[in-house]
Amino acid sequence: MAFLFRQKTKTDLAKPAKELLLQLWQSVTPSQKTEDELAKLLSQMKVILQGTHDTESSPEQVAQLVNSMIQEDLLYLLAHSIRLLPFESRKDCQSIFSYTFRFKPMHSLSPEPPALTHVVHRRPEVIVELCRGYGYQESAMPCGVVLRELLKQHEDVASIILHDESREKERAISIDEIDPSHGPLQSGDGVFWNFFPWIDGGAFEVSTDAFTTFRELLTRHKALVAIYLERNFELFFSRYNSVLVQSNSYVTKRQSIKLLGETLLDRANYSIMTQYVESGEHLKICMTLLKDDRKMVQYEGFHVFKVFVANPHKSLPVQRILVNNRERLLRFLPTFLEDRTEDEQFTDEKSFLIRQIESMGPLPS
């Protein structure tokens, strides 16, 4: 009898959890009883999924629970509701997502975890809601941890985040609807574009975590992102430069300039780099960074500036700016960050740029 009772409890956890989550949304001020009962259920679900220090999880029980969560649409409700939960319950939610998205049944013919396959192909709203967790300080960090784990697991998760343009309560785009190379261009209103205000306008913890996910999104699946950036070049870099590179936040500014330099120097982004360094306006932004009163901003700005100068096929606007400012640059660069005496690579690169600027001929007539 005890065995039967345990089985029933484990298979029934998702349904009562769903009912309690719906009660949270229906109540202006949720009762303590509702929160306590939900916390207990989430804790039990976590134990089933990951086991304890003394006992390992049962693959059969985990499979039952994961299937039940999919059937009850609990993953979406958890992603949508995580900000309403108490601190410990939010931590349990993070664990539930992590284990659920990694679980593969024994003898499964599919190479992918069933929960991840379900979300990518049939319930992408779960991914979008996890992103929207950055809109609230309470849910930002647990949602961020789950998102980064998903991005490491599957390129399709990155594709959904990049291409979805649904609004709140609307159906999100599924992976089967996405054509990275020939689909519609971005409007700038999708969930990906919300990362810019989340990074620049959120509390410090939210901003830092959002940038970490943003960085993972742009660097993990390079071929996908290269196509995306090339097709949405003007929209992306106008927003990136205005919101992040020119942010009033020192941390955001420095991290964003560093990521920009790394992006431009990555071989996967060669065509993006050549397009970026053709712009005189981009060069002006970069030269302004060299004069910033914070040395690390200057240093990261230098690594973007060097791409413009080292480019053997400079556009006319870039040539004009460098030639018109040649004398000032040749006075400025020799003493630029001169205290970095132990950084031989920086010293060599700076000397190379000085020689390049010195050797530039007159502008073509």
Layout of SSEs?
Blueprint: H1 2-11, H2 14-26, H3 32-50, H4 59-71, H5 74-81, H6 87-102, H7 114-122, H8 125-132, H9 137-153, H10 155-163, H11 195-201, H12 204-219, H13 222-231, H14 233-245, H15 250-265, H16 270-276, H17 280-290, H18 295-310, H19 316-324, H20 326-332, H21 344-358
Model description:
This protein is mainly alpha-helical. Helix content is 68%, strand content 0%. It contains 21 helices and no strands. The chain has helices spanning 2-11, 14-26, 32-50, 59-71, 74-81, 87-102, 114-122, 125-132, 137-153, 155-163, 195-201, 204-219, 222-231, 233-245, 250-265, 270-276, 280-290, 295-310, 316-324, 326-332, 344-358. Helix 17 (280-290) runs antiparallel to helix 18 (295-310). The longest helix is centred in the N-terminal third of the chain and has 19 residues, at 32-50.
Mean pLDDT: 93
Query: Beta-strand level of the residues, as a percent range?
Result: under 5%
Structural class assignment? mainly alpha
Quantity of strands, as a count: 0
Q: Report the major sheet.
A: none
Shape: elongated
Order of helices and strands: HHHHHHHHHHHHHHHHHHHHH
> Can you count the helices?
21
